[in-house]
Amino acid sequence: MAFEFNPEFAIADEHSLRSLFDATHALAIQKCRSTLGIHAQEFIRRSPFLCIGTQNPNGRADVSPRGDPVGFVKILDERTLAIPDRPGNNRLDTLVNILANPSVGLLFMIPGFDDTLRVNGRAVLVRDPDLLASMSVNDRLPKLAIVVTVDEVFMHCAKAFRRSHLWSPKHRQDRTEMPSLVKIILDETSGAPDDKDEQRRMDADLEDAYKRTLY
Length: 215
Prior knowledge:
The chain is an alpha+beta fold. It has helices at residues 14-18, 26-30, 38-46, 93-100, 129-133, 159-164, 181-187, 196-213, and strands at 49-55, 61-67, 74-77, 80-84, 103-109, 116-126, 145-156. The chain has two domains: 27-164, Electron Transport, Fmn-binding Protein, Chain A (Pnp Oxidase, Chain A), CATH 2.30.110.10; 173-213, no CATH class. It has a seven-stranded antiparallel beta sheet with strand order 2-1-5-6-7-4-3, covered by helices on one side. The relative contact order is 0.13.
């Protein structure tokens, strides 16, 4: 049975929403900038991982992870970033969304840091040869780069990461307690084979594909 909630308890307007919370403190407003300051740039240079949020023309949202060696995002100037597009599953959700709606949101993370950096802006897909050459890894160039013009940038506080204990070794979970990626997908679609040897073969094939197609 699908979950249903009493519409009486739905929040339908901004006034009703804001009435539940205290006023924003001055620092939270002041921290928002339109350019990348020295500390924002340093954060980006240290970051090996980000999430990029996009939307299609109908407003359907998508968030995609992007990761590479530390400093993989190029700072072209104080208002422009370039993100290499590495091999993936070729669904191209993020890229197609950008073609239709250039607005993007970026969340930069650094392992061990509880605070994060948020960047909102407008993206274009670029194939400039010199830019792509500067993003080469293992002599392999990305097919394109996502170039983001920054509209808004600010640091985000540590509360979410501290509540989640994301970086704490004591809170790490054992990946083997859940099925492999291949089995999860097959279980929820066409059905995974019962044969354990076949499951292990598919898992080994996935690991081999990771090694061959990382760049």
